[in-house]
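Page 37, continued from 36.
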C-alpha cells in the first residue's frame, strides 16, 4: 500500500494544484466573459439608440427638405407670374412704340400731301 499511497500523494501534489489553478483561471475567464457580454450589451443598446436618433433626424430633415422644396416651387411660380406680366408689359410697350413710329411716318406723309396739295392749288390758281 505504500506504493499506492505514494502514487496517490504524488498525484495530489502534482495534479490537484494544477486543477486548482485551472479552476481559478476558469473563474477569471468567466468573470471577464460576463464583463465583456455586459459591455457588448451596452454597446448594442447605444447603437440602437443612435440608430433611432438617426432615423428621427432623417425623418425631420426629410420634412424640412419637403417644406423648403414646396416653398421654392411657390417662389418659382410667383417669379414666373411676374415674368409673364413683365413680358405682357414689354409687348404692350412694343406695340405703343411701333404705333408712335407709324404715327410719325403718317404725320410726315400727311405733311407731304398737304404740301403737294398746296402746290397743286397754286399751280391751278
Amino acid at each position: 500500500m505504500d506504493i499506492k499511497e505514494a502514487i496517490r500523494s504524488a498525484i495530489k501534489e502534482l495534479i490537484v494544484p494544477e486543477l486548482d489553478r485551472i479552476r481559478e483561471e476558469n473563474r477569471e475567464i468567466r468573470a471577464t466573459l460576463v464583463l465583456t457580454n455586459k459591455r457588448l450589451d451596452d454597446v448594442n443598446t447605444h447603437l440602437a439608440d443612435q440608430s433611432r436618433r438617426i432615423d428621427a433626424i432623417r425623418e425631420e430633415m426629410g420634412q424640412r427638405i419637403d417644406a423648403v422644396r414646396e416653398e421654392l416651387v411657390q417662389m418659382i411660380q410667383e417669379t414666373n407670374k411676374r415674368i409673364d406680366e413683365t413680358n405682357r408689359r414689354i409687348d404692350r410697350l412694343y406695340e405703343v412704340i411701333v404705333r408712335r413710329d407709324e404715327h410719325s411716318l403718317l404725320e410726315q406723309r400727311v405733311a407731304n400731301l398737304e404740301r403737294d396739295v398746296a402746290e397743286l392749288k397754286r399751280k391751278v390758281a
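Residues 15 and 21 are 10 Å apart (CA to CA). Flag for discussion at group meeting. The mean pLDDT is 90.
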